[in-house]
Every structure is written in C-alpha cells, then in structure tokens.
Amino acid sequence: MATILDGKKVASDIKNEIAAKVEAIKSKGLRAPNLAIIIVGDDSASHTYVDGKIKACKAVGFDFTLMHFASTISEEKLLKHVDQLNQDEDIDGFIVQLPLPEHISVEKVTDCISPVKDVDGFTNQNFGSINSKNQLILPATPFGIMELLRRYEVDLEGKHCVVVGASRLVGAPISMMMLEDGHATVTVCHKYTPDITQYTKEADILIAAVGKPGLISADMVKEGAVIVDVGTSRVEDKSRKSGFKLVGDVEFDEASKKASYITPVPGGVGPMTIASLLLNTIRAYEKQHSDEITG
Questions:
Q1: DSSP letter string, 149-187
Q2: I want to staple 275 with a disulfide (CB 3.0 to 4.6 A). Which of 4, 11, 285, 293 is the partner?
C-alpha cells in the first residue's frame, strides 16, 4: 500500500514556519506581508478558493486586501486596478483569481502584473525563469508539488517522470521543474498524444493534471510508481449532504495498491498550492524589505 503524500499536513507545517517568520518581522516593528486578491464576478468556486486563501493569510499573520469587481467591469478598468497594485508599496504580492469573464483577456491581465509581485508565478518573466540559474517567483501549484516531494524525500534524479496534461498552469511548468530542479527524464502527454498508457506504464513518477475523473486507472500505473494527482473534479454523490464529492484524475483506491507514494484528492496538491502562494508572498516581501529585515 502506498505512503500518502499528505499535502494537508505539509502545508500546515509550512504555515507554522511562515507564521514564525511573520512574528519575527513584526517584532522588529515592521508591518506584516500584505497579499492582495482581485476577484471578478460571482463564480462560486472562485469565491471558495479566495475564502481559503484569506483564511490562510489570517492563519500566518499576513495582512490581506480583497478587491471584488462585478463581472461587467471593463478590461481597461481592471488593468488600471492591476497597475495600482503594482505601484502600491504596501502590497507585496497579488493574484487575479481565474477564471475571468470572456470579455477580459487573461494574457493581457497577466502581462500587466509586476513580476516581483506575481505570487502566482504566471508572468512570462517568472515562468521563463524556471529554466535558469536565477529562478524568480515559481508557479504556485508546481512549486507546491516539488516542495511536497522534497519534504517526503522522494528521489527524482534520473527517474522517468511522465506528466499527463500540458497546461501553462501546471503541466508545462512542472515538467520544466522536474527537468531543471529534479534532474529527471521527462515525458509530457497531452490531448494529442494517441496512447498515453504506453507512457504512464513506464513512469517512475506520474503527474496527472487534466481534470478528468478516473482518467488514470491502476492498470496504467507502474508498480512502485510515485503518483501526484493534481486533477480535482466534482462528481455526484447522493450519500453526501453536498450532493457531490471531489475526485482526482487517478483511480485512487486501486492505484494506491501499486504505487509507492500517492497524493489523495482532496488533501494532496490543493493545500500545497495555497502554502506555496504564502511562501511566494513572504519571499517577495523579504526581497523588497531585505535591508530592514537584516538591519
């Protein structure tokens, strides 16, 4: 039976470490790090994610600034608000919660964010720094995956890592991190890959990031593989009060019997994403206030 990669526990450890840093910062008479969050519209899932991020900020002692705009806001006005946050010296990092309304270009908004405050790690400058010796702010979810594997001392060097899913949010950056930081041999599968099974069955480390429930069955998994399930989907479950349950891309019950390590859904990668967002924020703060902190 696989060892559970408990993202909830590791994220709690990281939050405790950050909280201690914040206390040390405040003991010097400095203000706490301040994370700003922009949310547009009333998408219930987005508001749930934002509530989780605010709760995490409170837990570690961060200040936070919430900016909620109607879904009818123009792209031009939203970009002005983004630029205001770029210029605000009391804001150390900020995120624009996705998705955005169709009339607003995600690319334009992302390109407008200052790389030093881009704690989601979405800007081209931060994304491109993954494959450099001078890495800047790393994309939060892939960063969280790497940190989770590091804290469980999972050996990546020379291993064959197969990433299923090639999105800019997860698949593409985690493949780059596995190559650059993990020194793994990396294969990326996507919707144009004719038969992903031939690759997944050879994976020492299998990362599924598609959002398709049960995409990866146990017979597609190599014995002893490390499985990281990034996918999160709601499926109907009438036995629950909510009427649904969260599941990943991997058939957990059977795959966990073959894997050496596996992340649960929920409780695996999700908590690590928020923890990484906090890590990016305090690192952005420390970089901008290094003289005051060390002085």
A1: HHHTT---TT-EEEEE---TTTHHHHHHHHHHTS--EEE
A2: 11
